[in-house]
Amino acid sequence: MTQTYALLLRGINVGGHRKVPMPELRSVLEGLGHQDVRTHLQSGNAVFTTGPGADPEALTGAIEEAIEDRFGFRVDCLVRDADYLASVVEDCPFPAAALDGKQLHALYLSGRADPERFAAIDRAAFAPEDFALGDRVVYLYVPEGLGGSRLSDVLTRPKTVKGLVVTARNWNTVVKLVEMTRGA
Q1: What is the 3-state secondary structure (H, E, C) of 90-142?
Q2: If we measure between CA atoms, which residue out of 102, 109, 85 comes closest to residue 144?
Q3: What is the pTM of this model?
Q4: What CA–CA distance (Å, rounded) separates 98 from 104?
Q5: 184, pLDDT greater than 70
Q6: 56, 42, 169, 174: CA torsion to nearest 10
Q7: Strands of 35-40's sheet, edge to edge?
């Protein structure tokens, strides 16, 4: 019995920097013994299967090391299983079905979305943008898209997320990764 995981890489292939071609990423994952490796877009999304009982933290460490060995630079990664990804979609407090995919984002975190980290943010100052906390995720509603979002900058500033890896995906990608990990 195998387990399916999604791999989320942070900050690659942006503006020609930290290039990680998806065929090479697939090769790295296959070299670690993972099967059924597939990628989505060029922004660092992969899905793979591996043996039962794999520890996501151990998988993350091995993948980060293999990427650094292959490309010569460190890339922060998050590994999440299919059930977790589905729960992010199911638990979304915003009306995802009524929104355009660019208006809703999941900011995946390497650890707990501790409310104390975000308590000082004056939500009213950013309206109509808004956010909500979930299980190792921050849901971000940005009606004009992420590009001009002031709230996104505040949510991801080092003071707020110190000690955490954070990587954002728009809602279209969030849903696609659920489909991919569910075999759709």
Answers
A1: HCCCCCHHHCCHHHEEEEEECCCCCHHHHCCCCHHHHCCCEEEEECCEEEEEC
A2: 102
A3: 0.94
A4: 10
A5: no
A6: -70
A7: 35-40, 45-50, 3-9, 77-81
